[in-house]
Amino acid sequence: MAGKAIGIDFGTSSIKFYKNGEGVILHEKNVIAVYNKIHTFAVGNEAFEMYEKAPANIVVSYPVKNGVIADIGNMQAMIDYFFQELDGKKKLKGADYYIAVPTDITEVEKRAYFDLISNTDLKPKKIFVVEKPIADALGMNLDVTKSTGTLVVDIGANTTEISVLSLGGIVLSRLIAVGGNKFDEAIINKIRKDRNFIIGEKTAEQIKMSIGSAYANEETMEIFGRNLVTGLPSEITINGEEIHDALNEHFQSIVDSIKIILERTPPEISADIYRSGVYITGGSSRIKNIGQYIYDQLGLKVNVCEEPESTVIMGLGAIIEDPKLAKLTL
Predict the structure, then answer these.
(1) Mean pLDDT across the chain
(2) CA-CA distances (angstroms) from residue 213 to 28, 202, 242?
């Protein structure tokens, strides 16, 4: 593709930039730390290190929630910071920008992503919008331009997006408020209720990725937090069965939503999905045995991506690098 082109994936958990000819040039946590309500103190991975540890005058937050920009001011401050950091080395001014957005959100919410880039001082040449399920499929090396039906399930940080694709478009899509952060919240609540023990979100995420599974297991893990009875810092040992009990309801919600989409899918596309199976992606799809769980519930082949958190940005990269895919933009 002639000229400069930048792809941006505004994920709930992390933000990624792709530059034509160079690949992914930024992959940081989508977190900002604001000092005294107005001054940007830190962004990205540096801000994430402060999460749940900052004093009262430093507010650390995620600007994107449930697939949409919840705090436009902080998101603008963060994107401006990253642009300034990269522009000296990468010369991003006057580039074409490709932005991935969820399908099942309002036009106003989609417009917020567009305005975010327009309001920077980088003077973007053109701004293109790509639906996330399309980018997901391209990032998994699937040819979505053909008439073959494809079912993609993106299990993200705040949401799970279930989409049926064909001929370069979205046939059906459903966005549900179930994702990695909900899993963490369920683990925190379970341990608090059953063990009278309080842990933070970072600890819950470590538990989820270490011993969390779609099936009960005998793995154990020592965790640190605060004992509710004594009020003192303490340590306990938890096991995989406890964590499975905490997460099972959310796994079932995802499967139930996939079933709803499949029930509405046209018969010819259903035949394609039966042959090719379900494609699972998104960072939270790394939980152990989630693919096997979906297979056991649906009886369909499950294709699990090796780098599920990167499929959207790599899909944007595919569109940027191949002019034939330009028709997939909105």
Answers:
(1) 94
(2) 26, 18, 10
Q: Which is nearest to 300 in space by CA: 272, 273, 328, 264?
A: 273
pTM score, two decimals? 0.93
pLDDT confidence tier of residue 91, bands split at 50, 70 and 90: low
Q: Is residue 289 packed enough to be buried (19+ CB in 10 Å), middle (13-18) or exposed (0-12)?
A: middle
- Looking at the chain, the whole-number percentage of residues with pLDDT higher than 90 is 88
In 10 A of CB 101, how many CB atoms? 22
For the segment 303-330, what is each residue's pLDDT rounded down to a tens digit?
999 999 999 999 999 999 999 998 999 8
- CA nearest 215: which of 293, 294, 303, 298? 293
For 301, the token pair is 């082949």
* 80 conformational bin, left if phi > 0, alpha if psi -120 to 50, beta if neither: alpha
Phi, psi of 277 (to 5 degrees): 90, -170
User: Under DSSP, is residue 2 helix (H, G, I), strand (E, B) or coil?
Assistant: coil
Q: Which residues, 6 or more positions from 205, have their beta carbon under 8 angstroms from its beta carbon?
A: 180, 184
Quickly count: other Cβ atoms within 10 Å of residue 298's Cβ. Answer: 17
**The token pair that represents 38 in the structure block:** 């107005």
The angle formed by the CA atoms of residues 307, 112 and 27, to the nearest 5 degrees, is 25
Angle between helices 240-264 and 201-211 (to 10 degrees): 80
Whether the per-residue pLDDT at 13 is higher than 70: the answer is yes
Whether 168 shows a pLDDT value over 50: the answer reads: yes
Distance CA 103, CA 307 (A): 22
Q: Rounded to an integer, what distance in angstroms lies between the CA atom of residue 34 and that of residue 294?
A: 41
Say how far apart CA 304 and CA 285 lie, in whole Å: 8
pLDDT of residue 144: 92
